[in-house]
UniProtKB/TrEMBL annotation:
Entry GO MF terms: ATP binding; ATP hydrolysis activity
Record domain ABC transporter: where: 9-238
Residue ranges of the TM segments: none
Higher taxonomy: Bacteria, Bacillati, Actinomycetota, Actinomycetes, Glycomycetales
Protein's UniProt name: Amino acid/amide ABC transporter ATP-binding protein 1, HAAT family
PANTHER family, sorted: ABC TRANSPORTER ATP-BINDING PROTEIN, CONSERVED COMPONENT OF ABC TRANSPORTER FOR NATURAL AMINO ACIDS-RELATED
Organism in which the protein naturally occurs: Glycomyces sambucus
């Protein structure tokens, strides 16, 4: 009998503290190849901290992050070699470099001999070929976001981490992004995304992990999570279902779960 392969990403009992503040109090979840998992939760719930711990940017007090069964490397090049790429909330593009040069950055750091061909292929795939020679900073925001995605995809990652991919985008761009994310997962890649845009999450996620105050309060299919009273209560800033309370800061931005 074949031993089952370990998940592409496995987060186990992750605890992170900043001084006296427990940002994550023991978070566990997996992401399998070909699966899209969305991490949601009200502002300050710990979503970015999970991302940063997965990328080695914050050191957990306890717990494990494993990529295909092995401890996650701490540095960017190590992560790229392990097949992990991420986008950043602030995009982090080199505005004066061309679109092609931006996409080449991680491929060059991997000393990939096919860097130029791979970069062109990825730009083609994402409908960015005609922007290749343009300085990245001259593109409209939705296209710059796509360049950031292209830069992450160019290395052919097995695990893609997307930090608020729909943030700042409008209707048609969000629909196009949803198609792209579905295509990425259909290629067999594992996708973990942090996102406030609930409609987009409902569209693309196979599973949703809901954080509140650094704890997983719900996990499951979009339908199951949407129907979970604990999730609604968290977004409304209530202690428990049926309790009265005031809306927590950020619940409005998070847009509720409906
Ligand atoms: N570097 C840091 N130093 C101190 N506290 C931090 C640091 N980073 C995060 N925190 C705190 O940890 C908690 C979790 O923050 P985190 O940014 O992970 O939440 P989030 O769910 O990503 O929030 P948002 O949706 O607003 O981005 C918050 O209370 C935050 O203030």
């Amino acid at each position: 009998m074949n031993t089952p392969l370990p998940p592409r990403l496995s987060v186990g009992g992750l605890e992170v503290a900043f001084g006296g503040l427990t940002a994550l109090g023991g978070v566990s979840f997996d992401v399998a190849d070909g699966e899209t998992v969305a991490l949601i939760g009200p502002n300050g719930a710990g979503k970015t901290t999970v991302f940063n711990a997965v990328c080695g940017l914050v050191k957990p007090r306890k717990g494990t992050v494993r990529i295909a069964g092995r401890p996650a490397p701490a540095r960017t090049t190590g992560l790229l070699k392990a097949g992990v790429a991420r986008t950043l909330q602030g995009l982090g593009l080199f505005e004066h470099l061309t679109v092609l040069e931006n996409v080449l950055v991680p491929l060059t750091s991997l000393r990939d001999p096919d860097a130029i061909a791979k970069a062109h292929r990825t730009l083609d795939d994402l409908g960015l070929a005609h922007f290749a020679a343009r300085p990245a900073g001259t593109l409209p925001y939705p296209e710059r976001k796509r360049v950031a995605l292209a830069r992450a995809l160019a290395t052919d990652p097995r695990l893609l981490l997307l930090d608020e991919p729909a943030g700042g985008l409008g209707g048609a761009d969000i629909d196009a992004l949803a198609d792209t994310v579905r295509r990425i997962a259909a290629d067999g890649r594992a996708v973990l995304l942090v996102e406030h845009h609930v409609d987009f999450v409902m569209e693309v996620a196979d599973r949703i992990v809901v954080l509140d105050f650094g704890e997983v309060i719900a996990a499951g299919t979009p339908e199951a999570v949407q129907a979970d009273p604990a999730v609604e209560a968290a977004y409304l800033g209530l202690e428990a279902v049926g309790a009265t309370g005031t809306a927590r800061d950020g619940a409005a931005e998070a847009g509720g779960i409906a």
